[in-house]
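Lay summary

Proteins are chains of building blocks that fold into shapes. Our project writes down both the chain and a compact code for its shape. Here are two examples, one after the other.
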Amino acid sequence: MSAGTIQSRRAWLLSDRPASRLQARLGRSYIAWRRFSANRLALVGMLIIIALLVVAAFADVLAPYSPTVGDLKNARLLPPSAAHWFGTDDLGRDIFSRIVYGARWTLYVVILVAVIAAPIGLLVGTIAGYAGGWTDTILMRITDIFLAFPKLVLALAFVAALGPGIENAVIAIAITSWPPYARIARAETLTVRNSDYIKAVQLMGASPFRIVLRHIMPLCISSLIIRVTLDMAGIILTAAGLGFLGLGAQPPLPEWGAMIASGRRFILDQWWVAAAPGAAILIVSLGFNLLGDGLRDALDPRSGDQ
């Protein structure tokens, strides 16, 4: 592709007067990508998350051993070696294989919590911001009650009531994760509900439900995506904390928090049993934080073109 062709396509994407909605959307996406790619740390975070997705998708191929079946007689608590890259645990299971399969459970928790909590927070926040009055007061006071408790403590209370298990842990984390999203959605709604754009839609006869669903919620999506991405690290740590306390994923599931809990007894002599899953949590959490910072810079509508 010649330099002239590249320049013409770039000029088409950056046009001040797009000829179609497609051109406008592609132009906004291109500008956002330029902002994002200018942040090297954000690219590192994106690569970490892509690696997590690849590992989770191809765990059956990448893991050399079973994540649940070990050799208790011959392979118990072996140090890292060519045969077992991250060593083995107290049941003779390969730690590298368990971490690889544990990536699936990490994504399972993160995706389900985001799918459950983000829409709830978006719905509550936009309704409160648009309706105002007693509706806003009641919904926001409920939100304040949830925000008054530390997330892990509140999740522990819900898991204790629901019972241990990965599904109940997901529900508990989702219940404790939606209030910040509601706050963000309400703040975005308050800034646009009296705008000329919304007034015009009201004059056209659109119902409040349609205005909230079709015209206000889409305006809140970019801020919500940024907050959800930044919260992924906290979700992972909360899930790991529940697993560490025995209230999350149950044995023999290869969940990283539960792996740290089983390895804490050997932390002084067989340090690799707890260190390997701890390093996995650290790297993935760092990746989500770096990615979230990059998305915040790229999707901020107040940012100019870099």
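And here is the second example, written the same way.
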Amino acid sequence: MTDSAYLVLEDGTRYEGRAYGARGRTLGEAVFATGMTGYQETLTDPSYAGQIVVQTAPHIGNTGMNDEDQESRRIWVAGYVVRDPSRVVSNFRSLRSLDDELTDTGIVGISGIDTRAITRRLRDSGAMKAGVFSGPDADLTADEQLAIVRSGRDMTGLNLSAEVSVTEPVVTPAVGDKIGNLAILDLGIKQSTVDNLAARGFEVHVLPQNVTLEQVLAIDPVAAFYSNGPGDPEASDGHVALLRELLDRQLPFFGICFGNQLLGRALGFGTYKLPFGHRGINQPVLDRTTGKVEITAHNHGFAVDAPLDGPVESPHGYGKVEVSHVGLNDQVVEGLRALDIPAFSVQYHPEAAAGPHDANYLFDRFRDMVLETRKAK
């Protein structure tokens, strides 16, 4: 059995490298992530479900894997592409190597290829279907491998929420004085988000993605929250319908990433697929409320189509809405704020493990909005 491996893109581009992690085949959407640190957090981010992640940082695995930096209950990437995996693990918290973790969890990867070249290809042509082939699958012909890749599922129109969500409610107690119960729709939530919300005084109820309105209201929530997650927001009409029921009840709402896209659709705006998405921890975003530029963590392939010049009327009758945050690289909508109901969202990750933390204040802004709404009532 050869130790060779191949990364094959749907446009026929083919890269030969070395098998890394588990052997076999895997299919997914090839995307690149620009973070120089935090590979464990990337691997365990549910938003990467269904995607083969190309790390632009050349050296990966230096600090091994531990049990403290997990963002969720498992690794979610469909495949992993790195240039130079570390031969030595050196960190006092490390419990195992990244290579062993990938092997033990069945994640097929490839190493020893020029990830910069792949990134340039994806930037020029956009994210596309891909496959990694190693072990016996490395012996398939190039035509056979390409046919397998092209037969894979397309991220457009794909609903992945059921694959990543909890199946039973999970409750995390509030830290300090309790504000009330927070209903979170788990579309792929990260543990750092739960920790940040609990630290603001919310008793956090992480609920399955197929929860009903009655089940949400049964916990007597003071607010609602939609998490990050994978998939096409256009394929999540049920989640949008639930959100509109909550907005109709004037329940304070905060959404991040996928939650931002679903708020946009609930308010009546469209969403669209970006050419290659935003993934990494160095994206500059302007907060129009403060005039400050934040360096932020992103992981999304879709965006909200809303007018940058606002405020504008919500097409679904929720009053005035404005674009609150804008990406400075490409002017993509990075946040929404409703002016007549208590609701806002951002397209990026304010919890940002392993950083940056410029946008962590948004959790405080959410807490303040909940308290002000309660006081007004």
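What can we say about the second shape? DSSP finds ten helices and 20 strands in the chain.
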